Amino acid sequence: MTRHSEHCNLHARNRRDFLKTTSALAAAGTLAGGLSIARGAHADGNDVIRIGLIGCGGRGTGAAVNAMKADKNCKLVAMADAFDDRLQGSLKTLGKQALRMESPEKVAVEADHCFVGFDAGRKLIESGVDVVLLAEPPHFRPMHLKAAIDAGKHVFCEKPVAVDAPGIRSVLATAEEAKKKGLSIVSGLCWRYDLGVCETMKRILDGAIGEIKSIQETYLTGPLWHRGHKPEWTEMEYQMRNWYYFTWLSGDFNVEQHVHSLDKASWAMHDEPPARAWGMGGRLVRVGPNNGNIYDHHAVTYEYPGGVRVHAYCRQMPGCYNDVSDLFIGTKGTAFLYNKPRIEGENPWQYAGPAPGSQMHDKEHQELFASIRSGEPINNGVYMARSTMMAILGRMVDYTGQAITWDDAINSRQDLSPERYAFDAAPPALPDADGNYPIPMPGITKFI
Prior knowledge:
Elements: H1 15-25, E1 49-54, H2 58-70, E2 74-81, H3 84-100, E3 114-116, H4 120-125, E4 131-134, H5 141-150, E5 154-157, H6 165-181, E6 185-187, H7 195-205, E7 212-221, H8 235-241, H9 247-250, H10 253-256, H11 259-268, E8 276-282, E9 297-303, E10 309-316, E11 323-330, E12 333-336, E13 342-345, E14 349-350, H12 360-374, H13 381-400, E15 404-405, H14 406-410
Parallel strand pairs: 1-2, 1-4, 2-3, 4-5, 5-6, 7-10
Antiparallel strand pairs: 7-11, 8-9, 8-15, 9-10, 11-12, 12-13, 13-14
Helix pairs in contact: 2-3, 2-12, 5-6, 6-13, 11-13
């Protein structure tokens, strides 16, 4: 099995395995990453791994449920979000879910461990948690990931991990620091934890379809949520509540959503970056004051050394043909990853296990907690950063209309951060008198 799919060999450790490993580590006084033996896996079963959630939207709430289910002796003890109503709604949902799990004790979030505002993430990391779940808007992930690893915490980091190249460089440096500290970073690029995709990708990497010649990635869907605009909100609050529609917060939807598809392409290419990319994109239906400044369609070609090309298409428009699929064309056959993983050609094969996508969100958290208990850290840092950078490169070429190399892109000086983080501060993009935001224009917008 290759290094790129090594975590597909899912941990099947039971409680006895945990206890054996903990006993072996007892002489050193700590588990990997600074998790003390006092909170390790003891035979009395009373030791608890304390979880903190940053970002209390739907994905964050789901991640907290996955985490609580992943380990017998863990509890959610802290939550953080920019907005109290979002936090309280998530906390209520999680309490109900814990009751359904017949484990109400797993949600143990006291009022003094509910943190709200732009500094909520920092406060949570400093509150005594052992594991941090990062599910906030992508802009904030590099800073929260760094703070968590600096503080000796294990991390589950949702995708994408950044919105600009400075953020990617920060994540790569943080991932290296996590390795030195023996801390786990598990990525929310969940298809790498899907059994069917793992089985198919292993065969691709072992040569079942021969030499890869071309890859097609499509993510054609309808529009997503929008939370409206209330007159009492400042511009910063409006953008934070509708973060998906602003490039500085989401990276654009080809970064926030299509990164899943690009990650599978990158995986097949041994996580080596493309040489350059070019493409086209724009806004056809995403117009008007409630649509921020992101595009509604992207089409990008990524060129690899040796002539392999990845053709990536994504769209968010209502009333259109939808398709989410992955197609890998090789000299000996063709592989299909999404929905019904299979290989056609000289080495035909059909996946026959659990339905794709049915268990991956649980598996990634099971692996994270198993790594903590065993003292065998997982570090997904490099591939999650490179796949995110691949998506950012796609946005760069579409916004500018230029062909851009990987080296130029990853060394970009463009920092999408606001001058300061406060609800009375100005976001990076401001609307005109009609409520419309400045939109990147190919051929006019410059690469920085």
